[in-house]
Amino acid sequence: MPFNRWFKNVSKYWTKAHYRAQLRRSFYKGIVWVLVVGMSISFGLVNFLTRSQHKQQNTVAHVDGASIGAWPYHRRTSAKRESLAMMQRQFSQFGVPFDLNEDPQKWAMETLINDVLLDAVAGDLRLNLDEDYIAYKLMDPYFAFEELSEFIPIHVLLSQSFDAMTISQALQQKGISYREFELFIEKALARRCVKDIVRNAFYVPAFSLRHEYQTQYAPRDYTLLELSLDSYVQHEKETQLEDKDITAFFEQQNMTTKRYDVPERRSGKMWEFKAQDYKVMVSDADLRDYYENHKSKFIDAPAKVNVRRILIKQDDGAQQKTQDLYDQLIKDPDSFAKKAKGVSEDPETSKKGGETGYFVKKDKSKVFGTAAFRLKQPGDISPVIQTDDGYEILQLIERTKMTYKSFDSVKSSLHAQVVDRKFKLSFSDDIEELLTKVLGNKDSIEQFVKNHGGKERTLDEVTRDSSVRAERLFKIRGKDFAYFKEGDLGILIQLTDIHPSYTPELVSVRETVVEDLYRDKATKALKRDLKLALKDVSSSSMGELAKKYNGILRKVVKVVASDDKRKEKLGKDNMPVDTMLMLEVPGKATTVFEGLTGYLVHLDSMTAFDKDDFDQHRQELSLQLLQKYGALELESFIVGLRRAATITLNEKALDNR
Questions:
Q1: pLDDT at 265
Q2: What is the pLDDT of residue 324?
Q3: Rounded distance, CA 307 to CA 374, Å?
Q4: Which of helix, strand or coil describes residue 6?
Q5: ∠ CA(419), CA(423), CA(426), 5° rounding?
Q6: How many Å apart are CA 400 and CA 2, to the nearest integer?
Q7: C-alpha–C-alpha distance, residues 141 and 22, integer Å
Q8: Distance from C-alpha of 456 to C-alpha of 52, rounded to nearest angstrom
Q9: Which element (helix H / strand E) includes 179?
Q10: DSSP state, 594?
Q11: For residue 655, what pLDDT is reported?
Q12: What is the pLDDT of residues 504-544, one digit of tens each?
């Protein structure tokens, strides 16, 4: 083969082989890249899906794109449950049943949605909160109880003794950072500002103020025609009842209201357990723990402050004068005492350089005490405040810390409280454990009662009433048990027998039925006469109506709606006060039937509008109407926000709650 042809063939072969090799390498490399990219995408997709699923599981709702997390939802639900449980305990101490039909989960979701909507409004308004305002609100017990129960135990909030250390401990227990807590406070206060803006945007017209003044403060004179039900009953008894009427009334009452049915009665056994007999073990560590967690009960000396005050009494220009003084004092705080001697209008303190002497917060007005206790360091000066005395500026001289009684000095008094606390905590758990054994061991209850000092009582044919014990007994199904705490007692109840309700024979209740039928006829007659008297009042005097309907006339004068003492006295005299105050136009009348008496109420006169007295009450009335209608305005505002919002609930996350 000639060289050139060989070379040509070799080159051709080499080129093909090289191409194939290149192609093969490129193919393998491509496969590798596809695999690498595919694995990366797969891992990324799995990670993305996992994160998305996790995020979805941790989100319970979306409001206009903003997420509501599962943790805030559960936290708020738990706080609401604790609040309801606390109310339940308080009511049960007095033997009053507490059955507030409020779903903590629904409440938590509704309030969280409202919060997100109000947060958005606050953001649009670009609200900036002053640090002093935030500190001031944190000392407000109402704000703390309403907003901070998610973070701080309710019993601590109620004690009003929480401080930075208490807050820090509570946040650590719930796994919340201080920054998260600060952000929550800022948002909560911003929402409150939005609410205040909405409420205060309501305009109270002058005619509404005048009408409210007349309603609350104008004295009114009345004439009342009183018709006694007893006299109508006596009149009805002059007519003999027929048997058919008695039977018909008996059957009709049983059909509509089961009036004469004998109610269901239940019998059972009840065991009472007292803390002191329950054999609760208390260690020194338990006593110490109780002392540390309830220090507010063991205050030896409250915190006190000693301040200087400058008072400028209220008159034209007083506010500006006080503000000018404040501007001077901020530049030269050391001149405060000298200024107080020269310009303060409080004769008692001005001669002492404004010094008030030491006092506790509750000894002063709310505004004065709050401003004084907000001052941290000696020499600090408060902003201008307005009190009942006028415009004031305060300067801190010194403050003393709150001190507590030592543990050793109160240790002996703690034992009973700790026993009671441990008893309440352990009783439910012990009973739950006991009831799991009852089916397998009939002697379990007797042994438990013996070991824990219980006292057995018999419940014999109990009827349902408002007592906690009866309520619990009637909720039991079958021959089962119920347990609860009532005051300082732990109660265990077993249902042993049910006596069903039944309708008795007429003969056994005939006397009662006859009396009720006479009363029913008398009531109808009395109401008929009241209706006729109301028609006649425009053409007859009250005296003429009293003769016509054999009633008694009563004059009641100078009744003022805002006079609670007078209204209470009239109520004790069985006067229909609420109905009387409904009348606002002289010459008008109305009727009411209360208890054993029917009344025709006539408004004789109403004192004319008194401008001078109105001016004295104007500000108070304006605030009342703002609160009354401002609350409705806020409710309407939030409803409007919700209607305009896109709200979606994560039903799956809620089902897993």
A1: 94
A2: 92
A3: 12
A4: helix
A5: 135
A6: 117
A7: 81
A8: 58
A9: helix 178-200
A10: E
A11: 57
A12: 999 999 999 999 999 999 999 999 999 999 999 999 999 99
pLDDT along the chain (657 residues), means of 10: 36 37 42 43 42 57 89 84 72 54 85 92 86 70 74 64 65 77 86 88 85 93 96 95 95 93 93 86 87 84 93 87 92 94 93 94 90 92 90 94 89 85 83 73 79 91 88 84 85 91 94 96 96 95 95 95 93 93 95 94 94 88 84 90 91 61
SS (H, E, C) 158-177: HHCCCCHHHHHHHHHHHCCC
- Cα–Cα distance for residue pair 111/191, rounded to 1 Å: 12
Task: Say if residue 15 is exposed, middle or buried (CB neighbours under 10 Å; 0-12, 13-18, 19+).
Answer: exposed
What is the rounded CA–CA span in Å between residue 534 and residue 554? 16
What's the angle, vertex CA 583, arms to CA 580 and CA 584, rounded to 5? 135
Q: What's residue 360's pLDDT?
A: 93
Q: What are the distances in angstroms from CA 104 to CA 68, 75, 86, 562, 655?
A: 16, 11, 14, 37, 15
pLDDT score at 150: 74
Give me the sign of the Cα torsion angle 370, 376, 377, 381.
negative
In single-letter form, the type of residue at position 573 comes to D
Residues 307 and 364 sit within 8 Å (Cβ to Cβ): no
In 3-state terms, what secondary structure has residue 99? coil
**Residue 323 and residue 393 in contact, taking contact as beta carbons nearer than 8 Å:** no
Assess contact for 419 and 275: CB atoms under 8 A.
yes
**Which DSSP category does 502 fall into?**
B
Contact at 8 Å (CB) between 591 and 599?
yes
The answer to whether the CB of 138 falls within 8 A of the CB of 185 is yes
Cα gap 398→394, rounded to integer Å? 12
Single-letter amino acid code for the residue at 259: R
Q: Distance between CA 105 and CA 114 in Å, rounded?
A: 14
- Identify the CA nearest to 265 among candidates 460, 463, 471: 463
Residue 486 in contact with residue 469, Cβ under 8 Å?
Answer: yes
Q: Give the Cα separation of 321 and 388 in Å (integer).
A: 17
CA–CA dist 133, 140 (Å, integer): 11
403, 300 contact by CB (below 8 A): yes
Q: What is the pTM of this model?
A: 0.55
pLDDT of residue 523: 96
Cα 139 from Cα 450, distance rounded (Å)? 50
State the pLDDT at residue 160.
54
Residue pointed to by tokens 């503000």: 323
Strands 59-63 and 647-649, by their bridges, are antiparallel
User: CA-to-CA distance for 100 and 102, rounded, in angstroms?
Assistant: 6
Q: Please enumerate in sequence order all residues whose Cβ is within 8 A of that of 37, keeping only pairs 6 or more positions apart, or say none.
A: none
Query: DSSP character for 335?
Result: G
pLDDT of residue 444: 80
Task: Kindly state the greatest CA–CA separation across the chain.
Answer: 154
